[in-house]
Design brief:
By secondary structure, the protein is an alpha+beta fold. The chain has ten helices and 20 strands. It has helices at residues 3-15, 33-40, 65-71, 83-93, 108-117, 129-134, 139-159, 169-182, 244-263, 270-283, and strands spanning 22-28, 46-52, 55-60, 76-78, 98-101, 122-125, 187-188, 193-196, 217-222, 224-226, 229-230, 233-239, 295-297, 304-308, 321-324, 327-330, 334-337, 340-345, 348-351, 361-363. Helix 7 packs across helix 8 and helix 9 runs antiparallel to helix 10.
Length: 366
């Protein structure tokens, strides 16, 4: 049985108790690409998957017919012109009257258009059934994520000896992204964050024209995508001798990072894991300077479930892959974040990232 067939069967078992006779997944210009790829292997930006018990059908337009026939382990039908009525026609041919939809990514406009085209059919929003399945990774998926982590770390090893005062953040980001693509990455998993000096206090800073200066802390939040799967890693380095405040902050964030990793195991809530790491920073009197959640799931998307945060309602399960990324940010001065990627196991966490973090790495400031 192919992995995609098994995933589709698992999805049908999940949604069929809701009383639906079919499940419809629509990916229009990338709107639901990760879920469609998970279920079929298709990497294009337009495709429609129909599940109805043991029947399954894939539809796409002439831009992707040949690609779909090569990638998808299902009958592929080509639609031309107004495709929605053709999708409805297939649903009617299957005898479906009550059709389930993954509703977290479906736009209201498309939902209304489906209802208009499918008069007499009932379209039922079912939340995020595919995303829920995607939370638990197989060993094959974990290996793909590990390969993405390894290339991400190799790139960081490559770029760090090459950065110098006077380089712009954008220049560093572009050189690193070029290296990743040259070495085999599908691409970067997100816009690489290179944040130097006072800009490192902005958790999601976008690399810009500002120059690196001697004495800066430089925050690297980087990750590549390999065979569709993402990596996410953050390390901070000093460009020249760091001050005592930076050193102390680094040690504090490292302690919080380790506390978060130590708290991870199957059955623990995302809220409790966040609390273990957050307590370290709060007891140092800097809780207000850690304003985001501790982590998130990673897979076909760099941000997916579960969440590790003070408001999380998730419970960890074996096979989940999550980040642990505490941070302390002094506005206008500097920020420190240390992020690792770990696999949840029954008895703890398996850390996928291996880039050194035991002490603040100091680079030449010349």
């Amino acid at each position: 049985m192919s992995e995609f067939l098994e995933r589709r069967r698992n999805l049908w078992q999940k949604v069929q108790p809701q009383g639906v006779e079919a499940f419809l997944l629509v990916n229009v210009e990338g709107s639901d690409q990760p879920n469609l790829r998970y279920l079929t292997g298709f990497t294009g930006t337009f495709g429609v998957l129909i599940l109805a018990g043991g029947d399954a059908l894939f539809l796409t337009d002439p831009r992707y017919t040949e690609q779909a026939q090569a990638q998808v382990d299902l009958p592929v039908e080509e639609v031309r012109g107004r495709w929605l009525p053709q999708v409805v026609e297939r649903l009617r041919a299957l005898g479906a009257k009550r059709v389930g939809l993954g509703s977290t990514r479906l736009s209201l406009h498309l939902f209304e258009e489906l209802r208009k085209a499918g008069e007499g059919l009932e379209f039922v929003p079912l939340g995020a059934p595919v995303e829920e399945l995607r939370r638990i990774k197989t060993e094959t998926e974990i290996q793909k994520i590990k390969e993405a982590v390894e290339l991400t770390e190799a790139g960081l090893h490559w770029i760090l000896p090459r950065i110098r005062p006077g380089m712009s953040e954008r220049e560093v980001a572009l050189e690193l992204e070029f290296w990743y693509r040259k070495e085999g990455a599908d691409g970067v998993a997100f816009d690489l964050i290179i944040a130097a000096g006072p800009r490192s206090s902005r958790p999601h800073h976008r690399a810009g024209p500002e120059k690196l200066q001697a004495g800066d802390l430089v925050l690297f939040d980087v990750g590549v995508r390999m065979d569709g799967y993402c990596a996410d890693l953050t390390r901070v380095v000093a460009l020249g001798r760091p001050g005592s405040k930076a050193q102390e902050t680094y040690r504090l964030v490292l302690e919080a990072n380790r506390a978060g990793i130590a708290a991870i195991r199957a059955g623990v809530s995302g809220k409790d894991v966040d609390a273990q790491a957050r307590r370290v920073i709060e007891e140092a009197g800097l809780g207000e300077l850690f304003g985001h959640g501790l982590g998130h799931g990673v897979g076909l998307e760099v941000h997916e479930g579960p969440r590790l945060s003070a408001t999380s309602e998730d419970t960890l399960a074996a096979g989940m892959v999550v980040t642990v990324e505490p941070g302390v940010y002094f506005p206008g001065e500097f920020g420190v974040r240390i992020e690792d990627l770990v696999v949840v196991a029954a008895d703890g966490a398996r850390v996928l990232s291996a880039f050194p973090k035991d002490e603040l790495l100091v680079l030449s400031g010349r």
